[in-house]
């Protein structure tokens, strides 16, 4: 027991004396939470519309007014010339063009139907489909108004129709930052855990200290605990730090239990640290660790659903995510903080993370040998 | 006691050790002497249970290095060739760390390391990485001794250390030996060989000779002549081209010359060199040192 205590003490002293490491531990959560969360937003605001109104009628102005009234759209420019609009679209000065044909009002009155054309810049497919959806809802709102006005139905006998009202659960104002913050926090914990543990063991190899350590009667489990526990604690501290920032800056609700959140954090970290340790047992230099860790991290993070919903990935990718620890942790973070899920809701994630943790850790213990 | 029987080890296609056998007696200060790449470190790492041999057996105080590796680690102190303590921990932290992992404390075995540790104690709060070469050596030795080992294995402890510190270090080893510790030390320096009780001369994974330094020199039967002149380089070239000379190599200010005929006198050599127009000639017969023996052994001459 005294041995393990001293090993831990030694690891902490070393981390604290390593100024670069220490700076990273403090700067990383600040940078990630304050910059990345804002940057990685999908909130659609200030979409620049180019209006080609070839009708200039009461009806067409009504439609344009609807766009103007929407907080998402911003009438950037207008003319009769579609060519000019296309040029602006190409230069990315406008995001989409609304083309109202010359006989808009006439067709509406005479034929009871008319078309408008939308030309959307779809380089960013996500944004394009969001623009399309917003536009549709504005046009359908306009439609409704037109029907009411032109049909002049008696006030006490409105047409039969289905009214729908929506309410967004767990994130009522659709604040994208609430969605991103738990995801970014998961990345943060992963980076800290995986890099620190991976670099640390291989550093002992590079410095040659492992040679001296290997001839001591230190037991394998003592050594492994010594290499795991300090970084687990540091990563959890960073998680706490990040949560405080999220709470203060974004007002992120933490509906669920903090104990549960940190419990899962620890469980998740066992897997991440295990993988980090495993990588460092099969490498010789910190450079190699950097490369391999970076590879795994890229794949895990991009597959894990921080930026894109896992549900929209192809089936095989979703299957692959079964062994991706960060996928589970992002889910857990979001479910616990936004939805207030309890342990009962997360049984499946619990088992998956446990299996992944045990596997990675066993791999590391199996690979670590005192004798070469 | 260390008992090594026919140890072989190869890395890929390179034979690092080719059937090494030797014994180190209890309380002996035994030296492994040889140039870089002779296999000294490989042999020590096998003894320290850090490497597993391909063939042969080795025992440390009766414990097999493969089977009983756990008990050996408790019993042996090891100082690797490369400084391998934590450079970002202080002197004292390093020492108490190694004491703790061996399940002891600094206080408990302070007696053993006192002579060494007092010299670095004034710097006990300094980071190990900021120590000078000689002090690093002393700290490494303290750490290797902190668990009171019965056997001490030191891999080139004096490489890269100044002459004064080297001498001090060997004095310390002598003191430790008096306390009954068996010491196996390797060195590429021939002059240190004379300080050991017995030495094994190693080259290319083989032991050339095992004996006390004095007897190794005694057994060297060839005559040895020393020569110098104003033009040392040309002198050695000339000697090597003379058919009566077996070998000639630079040794400090002199060239050490082994004639093919043991009866050759210094005068004959001097005459030859005068004939070659060397100025300020000095030629005399000398008693061979261990380095001369080693050079002779290395060149494949086993006539001693």
Please give a structural write-up.
The complex is a heterodimer of chains A (372) and B (304). With 372 residues, chain A is an alpha/beta fold. In chain A, helix 3 (58-69) links the parallel strand 1 and strand 2. The mean pLDDT of chain A is 87. Chain A folds into two domains: 2-41 and 175-367, no CATH class; 47-151, abc type-2 transporter like fold, CATH 3.40.1710.10. Chain A is built from 14 helices and four strands. Chain A starts with a helix and ends in a 5-residue tail after the last helix. In chain A, helix 10 runs antiparallel to helix 13 (325-339). By secondary structure, chain B is an alpha/beta fold. Chain B has two domains: 2-214, Rossmann fold (3-Layer(aba) Sandwich); 223-287, Alpha-Beta Plaits (2-Layer Sandwich). Chain B contains eleven helices and 14 strands. Chain B has helices spanning 40-47, 69-75, 91-101, 110-120, 133-145, 163-178, 190-193, 213-218, 232-241, 266-275, 290-298; strands at residues 2-11, 14-24, 29-33, 55-60, 63-64, 76-79, 151-154, 182-187, 198-203, 206-211, 224-228, 245-251, 254-259, 282-286. In chain B, the strands form three sheets. In chain B, strands 6-7-8-3-9-10 form a six-stranded mixed sheet, with helices on both faces. A four-stranded antiparallel sheet of chain B has the order 2-1-4-5, with helices on one face. In chain B, strands 12-13-11-14 form a four-stranded antiparallel sheet, covered by helices on one side. In chain B, strand 1 (2-11) and strand 2 form a beta hairpin. In chain B, helix 4 runs antiparallel to helix 5 (133-145). Chain B is elongated. The relative contact order of chain B is 0.14. The model of chain B has no long low-confidence stretch (mean pLDDT 88). The chains are: A alpha/beta (372), B alpha/beta (304). Chain A binds chain B through residues 2-3, 6-7, 10, 13-14, 17-18, 207-218, 370-372, and chain B through 48-52, 69-70, 73-74, 76, 78, 80, 82-89, 93, 96-98, 100-103, 127, 143.
């Amino acid at each position: 027991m005294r041995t393990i205590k001293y090993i831990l003490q030694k690891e902490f002293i070393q981390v604290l004396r390593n100024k670069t490491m220490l700076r990273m531990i403090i700067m990383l959560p600040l940078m990630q939470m304050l910059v990345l969360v804002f940057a990685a937003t999908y909130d659609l605001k200030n979409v620049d519309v180019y209006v080609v109104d070839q009708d200039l009628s009461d009806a067409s102005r009504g439609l344009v007014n609807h766009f103007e009234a929407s907080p998402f759209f911003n009438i950037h420019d207008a003319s009769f010339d579609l060519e000019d609009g296309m040029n602006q679209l190409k230069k990315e000065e406008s995001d989409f063009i609304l083309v109202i044909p010359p006989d808009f009002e006439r067709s509406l009155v005479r034929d009871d139907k008319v078309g408008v054309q939308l030309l959307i810049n779809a380089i960013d497919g996500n944004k394009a489909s969001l623009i399309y959806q917003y536009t549709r809802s504005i046009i359908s709102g306009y439609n409704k108004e037109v029907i009411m006005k032109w049909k002049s139905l008696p006030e006490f006998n409105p047409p039969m129709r289905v009214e729908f009202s929506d309410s967004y659960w767990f994130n009522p104002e659709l604040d994208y930052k609430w969605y991103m913050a738990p995801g970014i926090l998961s990345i943060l914990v992963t980076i800290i855990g995986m890099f620190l543990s991976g670099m640390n063991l291989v550093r002992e190899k590079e410095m040659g200290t492992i040679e001296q350590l290997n001839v001591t009667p230190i037991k394998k489990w003592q050594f492994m605990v010594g290499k795991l526990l300090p970084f687990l604690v540091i990563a959890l501290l960073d998680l706490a730090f990040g949560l405080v920032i999220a709470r203060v800056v974004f007002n992120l609700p933490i509906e669920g239990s903090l104990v549960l959140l940190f419990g899962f954090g620890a469980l998740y970290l066992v897997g991440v640290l295990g993988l980090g340790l495993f990588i460092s047992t099969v490498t010789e230099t910190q450079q190699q660790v950097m490369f391999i860790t970076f590879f795994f991290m890229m794949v895990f993070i991009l597959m894990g659903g921080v930026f894109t919903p896992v549900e929209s990935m192809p089936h095989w990718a979703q299957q692959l995510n079964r062994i991706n620890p960060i996928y589970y942790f992002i889910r857990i973070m979001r479910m616990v903080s936004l939805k207030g899920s309890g342990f009962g809701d997360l049984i499946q994630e619990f088992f998956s993370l446990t299996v992944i943790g045990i596997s990675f850790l066993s791999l590391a213990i199996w690979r670590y040998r005192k004798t070469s | 006691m260390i008992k090594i029987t026919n140890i072989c080890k190869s890395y890929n296609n390179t034979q690092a050790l080719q059937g090494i056998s030797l014994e180190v007696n209890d309380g002996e200060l035994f030296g492994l002497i040889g140039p870089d790449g002779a296999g000294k470190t490989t042999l020590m790492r096998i003894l320290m249970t850090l490497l597993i041999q391909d063939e042969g057996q080795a025992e440390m105080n009766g414990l097999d290095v493969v089977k009983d590796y756990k008990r050996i680690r408790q019993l042996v102190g090891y100082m690797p060739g490369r400084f391998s303590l934590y450079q970002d921990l202080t002197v004292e932290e390093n020492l108490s760390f190694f004491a703790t992992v061996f399940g002891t404390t600094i206080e408990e075995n302070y007696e053993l390391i006192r002579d060494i540790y007092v010299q670095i104690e004034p710097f006990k709060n300094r980071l190990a990485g900021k120590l000078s070469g000689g002090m690093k050596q002393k700290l490494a030795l303290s750490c290797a001794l902190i668990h009171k080992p019965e056997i001490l294995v030191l891999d080139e402890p004096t490489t890269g250390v100044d002459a004064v510190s080297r001498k001090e270090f060997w004095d310390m080893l002598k003191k430790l030996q008096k306390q009954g510790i068996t010491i196996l030390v390797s060195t590429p320096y021939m002059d240190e060989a004379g300080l050991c009780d017995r030495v094994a001369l190693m080259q290319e994974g083989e032991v050339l000779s095992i004996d006390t330094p004095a007897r190794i020199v005694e057994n060297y039967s060839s005559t040895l002549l020393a020569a110098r002149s104003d033009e040392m380089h040309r002198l050695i070239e000339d000697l090597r081209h003379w058919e009566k000379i077996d070998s000639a190599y630079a040794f400090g200010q002199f060239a050490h010359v082994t004639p093919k005929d043991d009866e050759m006198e210094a005068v004959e050599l001097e005459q030859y060199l005068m004939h070659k127009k060397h100025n300020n000639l000095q030629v005399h017969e000398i008693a061979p040192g261990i380095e001369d023996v080693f050079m002779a052994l290395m060149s494949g001459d086993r006539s001693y």
